[in-house]
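Readers outside the structure-tokenisation community will struggle with the description of the input data as it stands. What matters is that the chain and its backbone geometry are given together, residue for residue. For illustration, here is how one protein appears when written out as sequence plus structure tokens:

…
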Amino acid sequence: MMRGEHIERPLTRRQITSRGYDYIHKALNDDPAIFRQVYRMYPDVFRKLCTIIREKTPLEDTRFICVEEMLASFLQIVGQNTRYCVIRNTFGRSQFATSENFHKILKALNSLAPDLMVRPDSTVPAKIRESTRFYPYFKDCIGAIDGTHIPASVKGRDVSSYRDRHGNISQNVLAACNFDLEFMYVLSGWEGSAHDSKVLSDALARKNGLKVPQGKYYLVDCGFPNRRKFLAPYRGVRYHLQDFAGHGNDPENEKELFNLRHASLRNVIERIFGIFKSRFTIFKSAPPFLFKTQAELVLACAALHNFLRKECRSDEFPVEPTDESSSSSSVLPNYEDNDHEPIVQTQEQKREDVNI
């Protein structure tokens, strides 16, 4: 569909209101920059997503509303953190209909999520292949893994288990990404008090969980054990990028050199979290839904993120620092949990190889 063309109306003209149809039709044909600001994507990308939803999910136009309006109201909620009462007035729908349409789009996006998650391949990532700092030392690395906390709304006696180390009620979301800022795996719904390594173990144990190809590995931080398929930095050694910034702060030994290169590559997971939370501002505060819906919403928006990276790779929202990336710690804690898998010799060799 080209600029200026009309959205095809639902099959019958019997509609409760045409306000929503008229609103989104006008928005699609106005300034693309304004549309992108409100709906987090450009009009042509929005139209393509509507086509995919119609073709690959059971969702379709009804007698009363088209997919475009349902998607637009959903995107305004997740992109602007807009409440139902505002959407109701904007599109001329009842609060019940607004909620129903939101959950229809949520279900459709989650059904698309498996196909939108990027699968690892055997090629060396360009970021590594094209840099003498990283190649050949990290040639088997396929991405980075970390957890991020998203504010949660939880009621009942289980509230305390969702309280994270900062004292906030949150869900702990585990994500893996590649060096093109695309999600490869997302596991949401864990309590904020859960340790990252526990969430990772759950991801690996699930039937359709996280898979790591033979001979490949992800970069992880000190919150995870250093073990096969997951390469962590040296403990008790400077690690964070800001620790090496400025004159006179260059690495002083092989372990610091490894940690600097490791941190430089692993920073991609902090960037993707920053873009994700900047694009979908609903995650800056506790979403006003049942917790099950809050967890599903994370996966749906991760799928949306990947779709947008594919369709318009240069369109990045300003990265905002996350709690994980703004850590002021200059030295990694020197401890090992008893239930962690011990570091094997092959992992030590991988870390030593980086210093060649």
About this structure: The first strand starts at residue 141 and ends at 151. Residues 126-353 form one domain. The chain has two domains: 19-116, 126-353.
